[in-house]
Amino acid sequence: MSSTWKYAVAYLLILQFTLGLLVPESWTYHYRVPYDAFKEGPQTLELALNHIEREIRSEGLSDYVILLGDSVMYSGPGGPERSIGYYMERLAEAGGRSLRVFNLAQPAMQVGDVYIVLDKLRRRGIATDRLVINLTYAGFVNRQDGTPIVYWLGDDLKQVDPEAWGRYRASLVSSPQATISRTPVERLNAGLRRLIPLLAYQPVLKGRLLQAVLSTAEVYDTRPWTEKPGLPELMKEYMYQRGFSPEPFDMTNANPQIDFLERILAQTADHPPLVFLTPTNQVLMAANTTHPGYQANLRAVDAWFAEQAVVYRNWESALPDRLFTDQVHLTPEGYEVLAGMILQTLEEMRADALSQP
Amino acid sequence: MLFHSPEFVLTMLLTLLFYWLFPRARTPVLAVANIVFYAASGLQYLLLFLALSALTYGLSRAIARGIRPRLLMVIGVVANLLNLVIFKYTAFAISNLERLLHLGLDPGVFQLLLPVGISFYTFQLVAYLVDVYRGQVPPARSLAEFWVFIAFFGQLIAGPIMRAEDFLPQVESQSRIQFEHREFKLGAFLFTIGLLKKVLLADQVGPLADSFFAQAGSLGALESWIAAYLFAFQIYFDFSAYSDMAVGVGHLFGFTLTPNFDTPYLAGNPSEFWRRWHITLSRWIRDYIYIPLGGSRHGEWRAAAAMLTAMGLSGLWHGAAWTFVIWGLYHGLLSIGHRLWRRQVLSRFRWPLPDRVVRWVSVFLMFQATAVGWVFFRAEGTRLALHMVRKMLTLSDLHFTRVNAFYFGLIVFLALLHVAEFWFRHRQAEIYARWTRWVPSPVRALAYTAVVVLIAIVSAPKQATFIYFRF
């Protein structure tokens, strides 16, 4: 081997071992995991977890909250410094308390993904005793030919829960929406992307490189829904209407949503999480939310949670429509309000826990 | 398994390791590697390919022994072509029949998933059989060696279409191939150049071209030209990237594969274009279709008919759609037109301009003609293609906007890159000598590392496939 090749191999090896130190931690986690990187490579979540784990250990953190859920918990369409986690920390700080919030939610995450992230946290020894999960009405709707119960992290389900894998494998593999390795070659690809640091960091580095080359900054459209022309018409399309279906929910564990919620609650029995039903724009979606079937379904969800070891809040109609940017996503002001509601509930839970003998 | 995926690189490195460590086991190592690479696209297709290869090998041995050679050659050619026709053209044929006769058939039912590389390996198998029948090459000595020749993973999916006379002797003598630093470096260099072309150019230009063709029906003249130019560069960078990588992989194993491209947009006329674009396909069409149809030996009219037939079939080989046939016929007409022009005009007239100027004007005009052809190749249907070409040629609906100016700037940049590639290819040895003489090893290594890192970062986890894979 010529000396040039030896140098090149040495450089590449050095890079593999030092990449984690060279890449600023804010690139993998800044009040949340950057979605652009996550959707290009879900292994970005592992990099963010490394960062969070290091922070918890090095700073000896004990007072922290974990947020899990979908695009509402992620706080789209606003930027990271307009997100729920950010506002929770600022509000706590304003109240004279230092609180760390780790937001691991991602757009399109389903309860199956939440279950897997929860397992990842527990395997790393990250405490999940102050856990907040958001759920949407749409999650309970019949998923036949719809959104897969594990949207992003299908490759992890086999390791996390072989029984669930056996039950849902076929539906995940056949779902075009599910991010999952379907062939041995795809599994090898996914494995290499986790194993080799340069490939693991690829989505994060690519995003930064493109930003630098194209000199672009992220644009966040957080206008209130009333300023977005065509939105009411858009909401009439099937893909949106489907999520508000008034068909009666199946509240048994034959519904994957219920099945995975039961699996999650079995994991968190020692410290029940806060689970809330995501606020919905009651004006924009009035035709749907006033439907008797829809209301009956909400009551069924409330009744189901009343039987579970969980602190549950139905905030489906808790926010005024002026705080929405569309049917469920909020303006920065809306996320600040929601952050306040979460924080207050957590405080109540803490007070309850302290008052227990 | 795509060349620009980590799983390909890993599997290739393992194959290289075994190949160079165990010289006497090279044939089995490559035979197994070919099976692994092809199996990644589907086990059933592998079995089909293996069966056709075994059949062709058996027939070639029998032909060489003089057992009903003509009949066996015809059986072999028909079997291979039938395989291609069934998979690639059944739905196309049914949809045309349906359009003509209204039989109530659903073409969708006959739409089969195309085995990867089927068009390429069919042409290699047919050429081999015909060459053995003609006595131009002896048959392969063993099925394993034949399999390594016909299914070499470096070029199996999208060429170059290797001929037995060029590649089979190399395979049969591979146990004697010595490891040479220079050869290996050349292979790594070509592979890397191909990767860079694919991830930095083709994959970046592709979405831009797609966005124009997605609204083909509403494009004006300038936008249509922009779409055609962008696709011209996308398909060149994409396909030549694959070919560079294929030739590079060949060098890594000590093989010399036939280059498939020679900066084709610098061609000054249609016949030169086909000597520089998809060179191995052009030769195949010439040797197994055009010349057997009479070539230019029987007068102008027969030559023109042979040319149109050959180019029409070449178009059909690219895809089961009339747009591809029109593209092929269009190039056939260009070739016939150029032949007439050369005979009737250029033989009696000399341009009163310096040769260099005439040359560059020819290159410019030929590129425009090529770009027009690409519209038929890329557009979603004949109607949209004709709409775009009409706009391009009549220059109607001209919109001079800043966005259009940006795209023209990009196109000029891509054209300059093409010229730079020509310049670089012709001074490769000299540039490399200077690079190694003037730049110290650690700095060169740093540059190579930077290139590897750049490729790893820019390539998407779900890689965009190569355009020619679908053929």
Description:
The complex is a heterodimer of chains A (about 350) and B (about 475). Chain A is of the alpha/beta class. Chain A has a single domain (about 5-310, about 330-350), classed as 3-Layer(aba) Sandwich (Rossmann fold). Chain A contains 17 helices and five strands. Chain A has helices spanning about 5-20, 35-40, 45-60, 70-75, 85-95, 110-125, 155-160, 160-175, 185-195, 195-200, 200-215, 230-235, 240, 255-265, 285-290, 290-305, 330-355, and strands at about 65-70, 100-105, 130-135, 275, 310-315. Chain A has a five-stranded parallel beta sheet with strand order 2-1-3-4-5, with helices on both faces. Chain A starts with a helix and ends with a helix. The radius of gyration of chain B is 23 Å and the shape is globular. Chain B is an all-alpha fold and about 475 residues long. In chain B, helix 8 (about 180-215) runs antiparallel to helix 9 and helix 13 runs antiparallel to helix 14 (about 355-380). The interface of A and B includes residues 3, 183, 184 and 199 of A.
User: What's the mean pLDDT score of chain A?
Assistant: 93
Q: SSE order of chain B, as H and E?
A: HHHHHHHHHHHHHHHHHH
Largest sheet of chain A: 5 strands, parallel
Helix % of chain A is: 40-55%
Let me know the CATH homologous superfamily of chain A: SGNH hydrolase
What structural class should be given to the helix and strand makeup of chain B? mainly alpha
Identify the overall geometry of chain A: globular
Low-confidence stretches of chain B: none
Which architecture of chain A per CATH? 3-Layer(aba) Sandwich
Most extensive interface, residues per chain? Answer: A-B, 28 and 22 residues
